[in-house]
Amino acid sequence: MESMKSARKAETGNPGSDLSEQIKAATKENHVRAENTQLMLSYQKGQITLRQYKVLLCSLYEIYKALEEELDRNSSHPAVAPIYFPQELARLEALERDLEHFFGPDWKKKVIVPAATHKYEQRLRKIGKQNPELLVAHAYTRYLGDLSGGQVLGKITHKSLGLSSKEGLSFFSFPDVSSPNRFKQLYRSRMNGIKLTEQEKAAVLEEAVSAFELNIQVGRQEINLTRVCKHLKQITKQPWYNITM
Question: Where is the stretch described as Disordered (predicted)?
């Protein structure tokens, strides 16, 4: 399996004993691939469209709903408790505000859930019930990724869509994190202090690789979905977000 291959590469690369460094080494190739999906390339070119952003918000809502509900449910688990920062990091309420801004008060009836997003959500639910320590991999890759690139992506979205205010961009804002860099250092320190067996650590590394792959699949399907929705809108003259896939 590709995930096992990537995990083995991390071991042979001797990245050190810190879990955060091992995850970084294990997911290096996957990280590059994630940055080269069509969605991220659109961001890099400053050409993100409103349709792309709406589909992205729909996927992010489903992913973070599953992730944060499982983190909440397992907040006292010894592997989850050290990296449980709902006040500083939780994204669900921000995403709800963004969705309401773009879709209206009945946004829940209009949310599209691509198959790849549903697969991601199911994986989070499964490990939350069976192997909560694996949530560490998803929380780390998602939240630290948001903190690292969120401010830049928010500015690109604001400019590309020609928004007159910051409404609809709540996802990118972390009002309770005064210094993203310092907070990331704290987060890594907490994560590196988690007590895991060698078998559990190997499983977390493999799960981190899987997390990147799931995100890559979501990014690919979002691009395909926006193309299909645009085509169907032209045929049916319906708003794209009312078309169920």
Answer: 1-20
